[in-house]
Amino acid sequence: ASTVALIPAAGSGTRLGAGIPKAFVDLAGRTILQRCVDGVLAAGVGHVVVAVPADLIAATRADVPDAQVVVGGSVRSDSVRACLAATVGAGTSEPDVVLVHDAARALTPPAVFARVVDAVLSGHDAVIPAVPVTDTLKRVDVDGTVVATVDRSPLRAVQTPQGFRPEALARAHASGADATDDAGLAEALGMGVHVVDGDLMAFKITTEWDLRLARMLCEQGAA
Ligand code: CTP
Ligand code: MG
């Protein structure tokens, strides 16, 4: 089966606060984006499209020579649509599966990719990897007073890669809306979204703490 991965990597990394776009931050000798693309290719994905800020196009082509590189947008969904426009529906032969994968989930193990791809090939239009929530969750009002303790048992923390039949992803993005993940756009259209097991190693490098953890894992050879 043929698989394409779209990698939004055009964010500025405000919460990380590294002073450069997050995907270009060093992670034990390779950038976050390089490690992400390495992982995607190691998982057997045939074609990779990366969206980055306009001023980093040339640097990205040098950093990840095996990837197609496009200019991203001002919000994540725009960056995904820039990748989509350059591949699926751009006259190239349609892949069996399209994955959308955050550059910031650079240490995602190959088994997660395999579970997502297999679920799409078995007939699901949209597939997401997810893990149980471990903390106690409370709803808090603006004054800092607890309103309620939320039952966490049906809740899941959602990761990437998210997998789609090409037609389903194109339909999800047709509205031009923004969402924090692609499955959210599919849900808004009433499409069914199937959940498979994620992996704690697919955590998103968002804060300085996440970056410290990711660096330790790389230095220890655990990722
Ligand atoms: N992303 C993107 N284009 C945007 C915004 C985000 O391609 N306009 C990408 C990021 O590069 C990242 C993924 O979407 O790989 C997940 O976003 P997030 O973790 O929020 O990254 P940033 O938006 O860069 O971080 P922050 O929200 O802290 O600024
Ligand atoms: Mg963001």
TrEMBL record:
Pfam families registered for this protein in UniProt: IspD
Q: Which key words are in the record? A: Isoprene biosynthesis, Nucleotidyltransferase, Transferase
Q: Which SUPFAM superfamilies match?
A: Nucleotide-diphospho-sugar transferases
> Which residues of this protein are annotated with the site description Transition state stabilizer?
R15, K22
Instruction: Give the E.C. number(s).
Output: 2.7.7.60
Q: Which gene encodes it?
A: ispD
Class of enzymatic activity (EC top level): transferase
The entry sums up its family as follows: Belongs to the IspD/TarI cytidylyltransferase family. IspD subfamily.
What NCBIfam families does the entry give? ispD
Q: Which InterPro entries match?
A: IspD, IspD/TarI, IspD/TarI_cytidylyltransf_bact, ISPD_synthase_CS, Nucleotide-diphossugar_trans
* Site annotation Positions MEP for the nucleophilic attack: residues: R152, K204
Instruction: State the reactions this protein catalyses.
Output: 2-C-methyl-D-erythritol 4-phosphate + CTP + H(+) = 4-CDP-2-C-methyl-D-erythritol + diphosphate
What superkingdom heads the lineage? Bacteria
Pathway listed for it is: Isoprenoid biosynthesis; isopentenyl diphosphate biosynthesis via DXP pathway; isopentenyl diphosphate from 1-deoxy-D-xylulose 5-phosphate: step 2/6
Q: What is this protein called?
A: 2-C-methyl-D-erythritol 4-phosphate cytidylyltransferase
Citing just one GO molecular function, the answer is: nucleotidyltransferase activity
Alphabetical list of PROSITE patterns matching this protein: ISPD
Functional description taken from the UniProt entry = Catalyzes the formation of 4-diphosphocytidyl-2-C-methyl-D-erythritol from CTP and 2-C-methyl-D-erythritol 4-phosphate (MEP).
Q: Does the keyword Aminoacyl-tRNA synthetase apply?
A: no
